[in-house]
């Protein structure tokens, strides 16, 4: 009799464990990549490690970052990476792996951010718009007919912000809007160009939707949304058409990739240059959003992970330091605490949860008829 009781208890526990394991997880997965800087060392290394860990844990050498996220957001150079890993090929698969996207941005960085030749007395050298335009067009161009990819050609929902001088308000490019109307569909290279138009380096970038009905005079999205995580969370919470099962933050799993803290020492003598002020704004926006999200997820901290390199600007950070640096976590109502886990450890733990939930059902790109040139001769 006692043996039967023990056996029943054992099988009850095993059954409970099995049912818990098989219970469907409906969490919507968000990936957000900060703007700031021109090298994307922090976000780039985090992206590569993220994809490597996904492949390791799934035993699938062809798995890509976009396969395990429901929506991707990015600003500035983070938007370029976000658009590259979500841009779809003719089969609806991501055009670039994380490693390919980061490598391309690294190898062609001097073309993306090429200084203009100017007078010796200029205090601040401008960057070449034409050089950046040419690279971005090649990245997002169809092979056979030269057609340029648009927001509708992404294999996963994409969000990219800028600030529109015409309306004096933020403007968020999204695949959801692009799918509804050509008046909100824009060429991807123009979207990336718009969010990268930092006032201290570029003139405002004028662009129009594919039907010419929506016009925008854009400057850097980082001025208002350098960390686009909050925009992505808000989009998911209010977009019942694409995310019907999301009712609150408890239904979300969020990974936010920083791009290194800006160097504000230039203002210690109380005479801040315009570029220094821009750096402070970018860093301040990112930290404020991190604090807000930390408060929102204070009861389920493992559902929100922020990867950032603290105390070192993205331009000075060496690749090998990014994943080894100990992580920071925002505390409710202000402040941060230094964690025992490194950035690499935190990504590993996040991937374990990510993979356990399985691949999202693929919300295919509204347009799957394009074949894109992945810059085979431009690397």
Automatic annotation (TrEMBL):
Record-level Gene Ontology MF annotations: hydrolase activity
Pfam families, sorted: Patatin
Its EC number(s): 3.1.1.-
Region (Disordered): 357-379
UniProt short sequence motif DGA/G, positions renumbered to this chain: 220-222
Compositionally biased tracts (Polar residues): 367-379
GO biological process, one term: lipid catabolic process
Residue span, PNPLA domain: 31-233
UniProt keyword list: Hydrolase, Lipid degradation, Lipid metabolism
CDD domains assigned: Pat17_PNPLA8_PNPLA9_like
Entry-linked PROSITE patterns: PNPLA (PS51635)
General function of this protein: Lipolytic acyl hydrolase (LAH).
Free-text comment on this protein's domains from its UniProt entry: The nitrogen atoms of the two glycine residues in the GGXR motif define the oxyanion hole, and stabilize the oxyanion that forms during the nucleophilic attack by the catalytic serine during substrate cleavage.
Protein family membership: Belongs to the patatin family.
Protein known as: Patatin
Annotated organism of origin: Phaseolus vulgaris (Kidney bean)
């Amino acid at each position: 009799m006692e043996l039967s009781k023990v056996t029943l208890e054992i099988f009850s526990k095993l059954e409970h464990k099995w049912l818990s394991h098989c219970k469907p997880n409906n969490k919507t997965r968000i990936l957000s990549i900060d703007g700031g800087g021109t090298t994307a060392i922090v976000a780039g290394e985090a992206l590569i490690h993220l994809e490597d860990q996904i492949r390791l844990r799934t035993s699938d050498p062809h798995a890509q970052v976009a396969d395990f996220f429901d929506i991707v957001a990015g600003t500035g150079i983070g938007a370029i990476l976000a658009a590259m890993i979500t841009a779809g090929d003719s089969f609806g698969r991501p055009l670039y792996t994380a490693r390919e996207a980061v490598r391309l941005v690294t190898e062609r960085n001097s073309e993306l951010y090429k200084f203009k030749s100017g007078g010796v007395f200029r205090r601040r050298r401008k960057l070449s718009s034409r050089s950046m335009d040419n690279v971005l067009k090649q990245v997002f161009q169809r092979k056979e007919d030269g057609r340029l990819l648009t927001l509708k050609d992404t294999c996963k929902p994409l969000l990219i912000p800028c600030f529109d001088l015409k309306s004096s308000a933020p403007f968020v490019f999204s695949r959801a809007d692009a799918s509804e109307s050509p008046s909100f569909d824009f060429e991807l290279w123009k979207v990336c160009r718009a969010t990268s138009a930092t006032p201290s380096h570029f003139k405002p970038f004028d662009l129009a939707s594919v039907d010419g009905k929506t016009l925008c005079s854009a400057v850097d999205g980082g001025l208002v949304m350098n960390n686009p995580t909050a925009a992505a969370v808000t989009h998911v919470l209010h977009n019942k058409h694409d995310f019907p099962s999301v009712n609150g933050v408890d239904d979300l799993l969020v990974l936010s990739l920083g791009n290194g803290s800006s160097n504000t020492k230039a203002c210690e003598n109380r005479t801040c240059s315009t570029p220094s002020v821009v750096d402070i704004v970018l860093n301040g926006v990112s930290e404020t959003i991190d604090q807000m999200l930390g408060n929102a997820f204070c009861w389920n901290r493992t559902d929100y992970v922020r990867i950032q390199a603290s105390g070192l600007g993205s331009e000075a950070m060496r690749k090998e330091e990014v994943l080894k640096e100990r992580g920071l976590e925002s505390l409710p109502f202000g402040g941060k605490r230094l964690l025992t886990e490194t950035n690499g450890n935190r990504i590993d733990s996040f991937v374990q949860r990510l993979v356990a939930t399985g691949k999202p059902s693929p919300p295919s790109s509204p347009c799957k008829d394009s074949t894109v040139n992945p810059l085979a001769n431009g690397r």
